[in-house]
Amino acid sequence: MREKFRRFMTGRYGSDGLNQFLSICALVLLAISLLLRSSLVSWLGIAVLGVCYWRMLSRNISRRTEENYRFYNLQQRVQNKFAGLKSQWQGRKYYRYYRCPQCRQKLRVPRGRGRIQISCPRCGTQFIKKS
Ligand SMILES: [Zn+2]
Question: What b-and-e string marks burial along 70-109, b requiring 16 or more CB atoms within 10 Å of the CB?
Fold first, then answer.
């Protein structure tokens, strides 16, 4: 049986980070559908599980690898965003955060200095804010 399964999976993509993420999503959706007794959510969960299995059995390995790579990139961006928000929250006592009106660069200024002129280090735009 094991051998048969191994032979069946030869040349197929198998599991990766994106699939692990998708199967967790599917489980969460199915759990929610049980709680809400919603057939729509359970179909969604089954669909996600279906995509997960389809990717696992896919023979187009380069395409699946690329998808996984894009998934990791996105995951990294989301993690960076949360890390940024966390440090902003931790520093809220001492700093104020503004965005440059020109280039949207996020800027950090010390609190309690009254009205100050801020100049953006990226594009050089100057603007006045209360700190
Ligand atoms: Zn700027």
Answer: ebeeeeeeeeeeeeeeeeeeeeeeeebebebeeeeeebee
